[in-house]
Amino acid sequence: MPDWFDDDELWTTARLAMFPPTSFAAAPAEVAALFELCGHRPRPALDVLDLPCGPGRHTVCLQRAGHRVVAVDRTDAYLEELRVRALDRVEVVQADMRDFVRPDSFDLAINLFTSFGFFEDLNDDRQVLRNFHASLRPGGHLVIDLMGREVLARIIQPKRFQRLADGTVLLCENRVVDGWSWMEGTWTYIRDGHSKVIPFGHRLWTGSELRRELRDAGFADVQLFGGFDGSDYDHEARRLVAVARK
Fold first, then answer.
1. What pLDDT shows up at residue 40?
2. pLDDT value at residue 41
3. Taking the C-alpha atoms of 124, 107, 20 and 25 in order, what is their torsion angle to the nearest 10 degrees?
4. With left for phi above 0 and alpha for psi between -120 and 50, is residue 193 left, alpha or beta?
5. pTM here?
6. Judging by DSSP bridges, how do beta strands 169-177 and 240-245 pair with one another?
7. CA count, 13 A, side-chain hemisphere, 65
8. Positive or negative torsion for Cα 37, 40, 45, 47
9. Mean pLDDT, residues 9-34 taken together
């Protein structure tokens, strides 16, 4: 049975809900903040890996700032959109994150918007971290941004409705399983009397678990933050942001 994330129609259907115009507007501030967290200012142009890049909201910001970006994703539609946005000045690669590795090639790698933990086999997640580590140059940084388990436990809503800009009604349903290690969910899109149901699932990481896995992958130093603002990862955290140095 194919994995849920291998369905291209899922990602194209979810495009507007996952990446509304406001998310693109927020990208420049997020890029500036992650550079602050890594201590890369002021620095000349860097070699940056954006994986997975989605439709490229962070890739384009990095490219416009003069950095050399390799953008990797598995979804055709997202990569085609990125090629238009980036005007062929970004290297765009279609690949699974379990497979992509380019040894000692990058100063910075980013994995943002809860894009780590899709795989039911924990060894696949570990392979992804090893790939990131191998792809970075000595002293390079990996930034992972996701919804930590501790944050989710405070804010989770089992069911919520959202109206998208095109008039579609989206019903989001979430269910925590396997001792709070995994979340299963469905997004149901309803428009003009028709509905489409999209399933998904991802691993739920605590801060300590993510730090341990990063260290086991070879990273020398791992810092945890509660957001791109550099706040502590504590009971008031809004996200789990890990900054790992090779």
1. 77
2. 67
3. 160
4. left
5. 0.96
6. unpaired
7. 21
8. negative
9. 93
